[in-house]
Structure formats: structure tokens, C-alpha cells
Here is the input.
Amino acid sequence: MYERIISAIESHDKIIIHRHSNPDGDALGAQIGLCSIIRATYPDKTVRMVGDMSRRYAFMDGSDMDEINDCEYDGALAIILDTAASSLVSDTRYSLAAERLRIDHHIFCEKFADIEFVDTTFESCAGFVAYIAMTEGLTVDDFAAKALYTGMVTDSGRFRYDSTNSRTFEIASFLLKRNFSTASIYSELYADELKMVKMRASFIMRIQTTSKGVGYIYTTADEVKLLDADTFTISRGMVNTMSDIRGINSWVNFTETDDGILCEIRSKKYNINPIAVKHGGGGHAKASGATLRSREEAMNMLDDLDALEDGNE
Here is the structure.
């Protein structure tokens, strides 16, 4: 089923693995896991990982990225994971590679690799990578299994989101046959420092709703400066403070940064992805994001979410 992936890997002695910028647990889990799988299966190959880092997931074993020169892309295969659009790839030098392969589970936005495997039925890219390894008989060692399981847990919301299915648990069972501690993963993922608990409480106190019941939080650049946290924690890390409130079907977290207004959009009931795409973003049906140019555009996005509520009454 995935012969083209295997052929591409076997055809190159040098492999460089990319994923999206501002990585979450899934992007890093897929990247670390695939790197370990290729090294274990093909020990003579040189495999590197590149990209920016998130302080939130620095606890993950093997999360340190490699520093490489442009010349290392000569004759190399670049693998891009968990990325829906070329503008989101961390380290644009993937374009220098001899061949490019993309493995992703987001709703398709554009083609930007020579070989593309995009399957939205997977709850996570890490799960997709693990499934490829399972079906193609690649070597999944303990190190890879732990990284991939971490990615699955984070992108499935601890197996709560409706993207979770029977295959999800088959893959998880396959990984859990390896020797690693799930307790060590959960203790890092879900144990908060007191300052983070206080920050989450402050975000809860700032939740607003539109006339149609869309929840939102808007954090200005000045407010961001007062918070002792990176933008990933403020943006994606705080969006689900609104997730379990009765009467709120869709919600969005806006965060002003030097690069624009980050917005994380979520919904329990509706496909909000077209709204993200309309504003230059993408993602999944019920979990998407975009970077906006102005506060006015952020308010326009809220109007679009209100219209979605109207259309489904």
C-alpha cells in the first residue's frame, strides 16, 4: 500500500525530516518516531531532523533538532510531516532536496512535494506513520514507539476526539507492546506548574461570546508581553479552556504576535475548516488555525462563525 514511501526511503542515502513550525506533540512525535524507525530499519542511512522548537514539548526524548548545512540536501530525500501548506513547513530548505515526500493527515490544501500521502482518516500524523511502519514491516523500536504514542495521545485529545476509531486503538496497542512508560508521558503532558494553572484561570475569566454563542478570547500584544510563556502556549495551549462549556459549539483563541494574529479555531459540532481556509489557514474539520493580518479580520472571522451557527439552527 505504501510502496512508494518505502522506495523513496530506500533510494536515498541521506534523509532530512521536516514538519510544521511551532510544533505540537503530534508533529514532533511523528518526526522523532519516523527518524528512529528509518535509523533502526536502515542503519547505513544518514537521517537528520530540522525545525524550530516549542518549549512546551522539550520534554520529549530526542526532540533536539540537527543543525545542518545547505549542502547536505544534495541528493537527499526531504520528508515533510503533519503539514497542510508549504508556508507552514519549518525550514524551507526542503525545496533543495533531490526528492520530497509528504505524509499528512490534514485536509488537503495544496501539493508541494513530489510524492504525497494525505489521509484525513487518521487521528494524528504520528498514528499514520506508525500504521505505515506496521503494514510495511519497518522496525519500530522502544524509542520510536514512545514518540509516536505521545503524538497520538496529543492529537486525539487523549483518545476523546471523534477522529478516534478502532484503528487508532489497534495502532496504540501495537506501540504499547514496546517497552516505554505511559506514566512518564502523561506526567509531562498533563501536570502543570502553578503559574500555568493561574494563567489558564486568567484566560477562563476573559472568555467572551458572540450573540450566536461563539466563544472567543483575544490576547493583545501588550498582554502577551506580560505573560511568561511562548506564543504556542498562549495560542494553542489555551484554546481548549473553552472546550467543555455547555452552549458553546465553536470557539477561537486570538493571539497578537509580531507575525500577525494567531487564531486557533475549534468546534464540537461543525466543520470550521472552510472558515480557516478563507482566512489563509487550514487544518481539520473541527480543529483548524490561521494567521490573520488585523483585529478587524479577527472580528470578521467571528462573523463567519456566527453565520455557521445561523446556518445550522
The mean pLDDT is 95. The CA atoms of residues 122 and 225 lie 37 Å apart. The radius of gyration is 19 Å.
